[in-house]
Every structure is written in C-alpha cells, then in structure tokens.
User: Fold Methyltransferase family protein from Pseudonocardia endophytica.
Amino acid sequence: MAAPQNHWTAELDPTPNRLQNQEEFLLHRPDDGGTERIVLHDYASVYAVPGLYEDVVQRQLECTSPATVAAALADAAGERVTGLRAFDLGAGNGVVGEELTARGVTVVVGADGIPEARDAAHRDRPGLYRHYLVGERIDSDEVRRLVADEALNALVAAGAVGQGHVPVDTLGELWDAFGSGSFLALTVSDVDGRSDVADVEGMLARRATTRTVLQRRFRHRVSMAGTELFYAVLVAVKE
Assistant:
C-alpha cells in the first residue's frame, strides 16, 4: 500500500484501565478545522480515512499480530507455504493479507463483518482479494463452496476471534469446511483475566484430526495507556 498524503493527525487518548474496545483517539483535521473523537473499534469510521488504521494501530500502538500470524504460518508450512491459498477471516482493509502475500501465500478470500472493511480493502489494496464476504455471520455453506472451488487450504484470523469479534464456535464451523492438509493460523487474546486461548484449545481438542504444531505468546501491541497487551499465536494442521 502506498503511503497516503495525510491531511490529519491522530492523537491517542491515554485514559488508563480501558478495555481494548473502549479505547478512543482524536482525529484532527486542520484543513477542515475540526476534531473528531473516534472509538478505536468503530472500524467503519476508522477505515473511512485512508491510512488511519495503519497510523493508529500499526504505527502508534505497534500492533504485531498481522506479521506474527503470517510468519508463524510460513514457519509451520515450510516449503509448502507457496502452495497455500488462504481465507482471511476478519480481513479488514487487507493488512493481514498483505503480510501473507509477502511470505508467498496466495490470499484468495477476505471476510469481515462490515462493508466498510471490504470497501477499504479494495481501495487500499486493489486486487488482493478475489472474493470478499461481508456479514456478522459467515455462511458455512458458502465457505465450503469457496474451499472447493478455489482449493483453499489455509484459514487465517489475526485478532479476529474472541473479544467481541468472531465467536470461537463459529471459527470451528468454518474450520470444519477445510480439508485434510489445511492449516489454521490465528492470534487470540492472552491478557490476564480475558484470555481466549483456552476456548480455542478446547475447540481444536474436539476435532480429533486437528493437531497444533505451533503455539507461543507474544506482545500483540500496547494499549493507549502504554500497557503491553499479550496474545497467543497458534498454528494447527488438519491431518
């Protein structure tokens, strides 16, 4: 993605003890003479401004989940990485898809809950996704059709599962659509008291043909108050 010419600045609100979905920042637009307060998880508003997500989340909050999940998948797949065809769950404006592509993965499908994410992906990274599904609930039959028609063999979700996003059970239903030899790669919250790791591990344990091949804790990002937020990255393969 080419860096846009910004006519705005984003100022983080460092109010302490906020949950991730409560964090806010100020968007200053000198050309318009106005300032807007935006909740970070109001993705429709964030994606409406080209480059804003990258500035706030990737640069200022130092989010490493997209690069971490892509690198973990590439490490687990080894020489098979260039044969992977991925479904990017919670694709947003394509930050994760871009990281996967940089490591040799062919990204075919993106999915997100809001149309603004799809529109931003096509605007910021045209041609990255052949298909982009929109909806709070992804139709598992449609996913099965895409897996078959597009020979998909990787399901990737960076920060898209749990914490008010895609439920773990829904992730399990989508994973069931993938065939033998497919990879599942995701990052989930491992913040004390609000961890989704056990739920994901339980979902995978109920699927006898799925084997976890990589799991580690990492610093996902910092909060606006400066606290380190930790996630876990997991990669599993269907045998």
Notes: DSSP finds eight helices and ten strands in the chain.
